[in-house]
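Hi F.,

I've been meaning to write this up properly since the lab meeting, where we talked about keeping a consistent format for the predictions we share between groups. The idea is simple: the sequence comes first, exactly as it goes in, then the C-alpha cells exactly as they come out, then a line or two of notes. No screenshots and no reformatting. I'm using this chain as the first example so we have something concrete to point to.
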Amino acid sequence: MKKINPVKKVAAIHDLSGFGRASLTAIIPVLSSMGVQVCPVPTAVLSTHTGGFENFTLVDLTDSMSDYINHWKEIELSFDCIYSGFLASIRQIEIVSEIIDIFSNEDNFVVVDPVMGDDGVLYQTMDDEMVDSMRKLIKKADIITPNFTEACYLLNEDYTFDISEEEIKLWLKRLSNMGPEIVILTSVPNIEKSKKTSVIAYNRENDVFWKVSCTYIPAFYPGTGDAFTSVVIGSILQGDSLPISLERGVQFITNGIKASYGFDYPKREGILLERVLDTLKLPVITSSYEMMK
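Output, unedited:
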C-alpha cells in the first residue's frame, strides 16, 4: 500500500524578517492556515524587511544553504511543492536551481516567483545579470508568478500601461515558452477601467487564459505578492482548479487590504494578516474569474 502523507509539504526558499509581514513571515502563516506544512530554506535573516525600513540588519545565509539542503537530501525528505521568491545574488539563484534538481519529481511542482522589481524599476540588489540568471531559473519552474514589471524585464519589453489584453496574452505565451507550463501575471493594468487591476494566467497544457479582476486600492503593502502566491499554492495543493486558486488568492489579498486600509498604522508593516487568516478556511464565496478568448 502506497504511503500517504497526511499533510502536504512545501519547501519555501525565502528570506526571513524579524518584523514586517513579508517573505517567510507571511508565507508560513498563510500556508499553515491552509493545512500545509512549510519547510523554510532561509536565504537571509533580516531585522525587518527592506520595504520602507532603513538601517536594517542582514545576515546572508548563502554559504550555509548547500549544507542545509544536503542534510535534507541525506534524510530523504520529499516535498509536494518547491517555492522560491526573492533571491539576493546569482549564487542564490544557482543554489535554488540545484535544489530543484534534487527535489523535483513527477509528483510535485515547482513555483518560482521572480521577485526583481515593481513600478517599472528593478530593486536595488538587481541588475541585468540577475535578470538573465532569473530567465534561466524559470526554465525549471512549472508555475511562475511575475508582476507586470518583472514580466517586462524577463521579456525585455518597455514598461507601459498602454498595452492591450491581446498583447498581454502574447507576453504570457512567450513567458510560458521559456519553460513554465503556467504563467500567472499580477498587477496587470486595466486600460478600459482605470480603477481596476487584474491577475491573468495562461495554462499551456490546455492553451487557455484565465482572468480575475479586482478594485484597485491606492495603497502599497509589502508582502502581498508573497501572500498571494502562497494562497495559490495552498489552493492547488488542496485540489482546487487554477481559476479557483487565482480567485482565492485575489479575494484574500483584497480582503486583507480592505481590512487594513482603514487603520492608522505604517503600511510598510504589511497587511494585517492576522485579521483575515481565518477566511482561508472558507470556500470561495463568489466566482468572478473569466476565461479569456
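Notes:
The chain has one domain: 8-292.
Residues 8-292 form a domain with the UDP-N-acetylmuramoyl-L-alanine:D-glutamate ligase fold (CATH 3.40.1190.20).

If this format works for you, I'll send the rest the same way.

G.
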